[in-house]
Structure formats: C-alpha cells, structure tokens
Specification:
Largest sheet: none
Shape: rod-shaped
Number of domains: 1
Radius of gyration: 36 Å
Number of strands: 0
Structural class: mainly alpha
Number of helices: 2
Length: 91
C-alpha cells in the first residue's frame, strides 16, 4: 500500500524512478560524451576553417579573373568603336 501511494505521488509530479544500474550507465555515457565531444567538434571546426580558407582564396582568384575579363572586354569594345568609326568615315 505504501509503495502504491509513493507511486501515485511520483506520477502526479511527473517524476520517474530509475534503477541504479541504468543511472550509472547513463552517467558513464555522459562522461564519455564530455570527453569525446570536444575532440570531434574541434576536428570539425578545423576542417570547416580550412575549407573556408580555400574558398576565400578561390573567391579572390575569381574576382581577379573577372576584373581582367572586364578590362579585356572594355578594350575590345573600344577597338570595335574605333573600327566602326573608321568604317563610317570610309563610306
């Protein structure tokens, strides 16, 4: 009867009873996570940082290439305008 009353009180408070073995297993798993998680996260952060560096370098190269192509296009446009003007004069 006493156990039943305790059980009802526990249910009404949204609490659970946990075996000592389960609790110790959970504590061990938490300890392992605390030990290993920083290692995994640090590795992921380092990998992401190196990828960011590579992408930033590629972006800089792409910007330089775009600038040079823009300059080249301007030069071709100027040549075309000069050639068009020369053709108009010859007519």
């Amino acid at each position: 009867l006493l156990n039943k009353e305790i059980g009802e009180k526990l249910k009404s408070k949204n609490t659970w009873t946990v075996d000592k073995e389960d609790l110790s297993q959970l504590a061990a798993e938490i300890a392992q996570l605390k030990e290993n998680l920083p290692k995994v996260l640090n590795k992921n952060v380092l990998t992401a940082a190196s990828k960011i560096n590579v992408i930033e370098e590629e972006l800089q190269l792409s910007k330089k290439l775009a600038e040079s192509k823009q300059l080249e296009a301007s030069q071709w446009k100027a040549r075309c305008e000069v050639a068009t003007a020369d053709c108009q004069k010859e007519k």
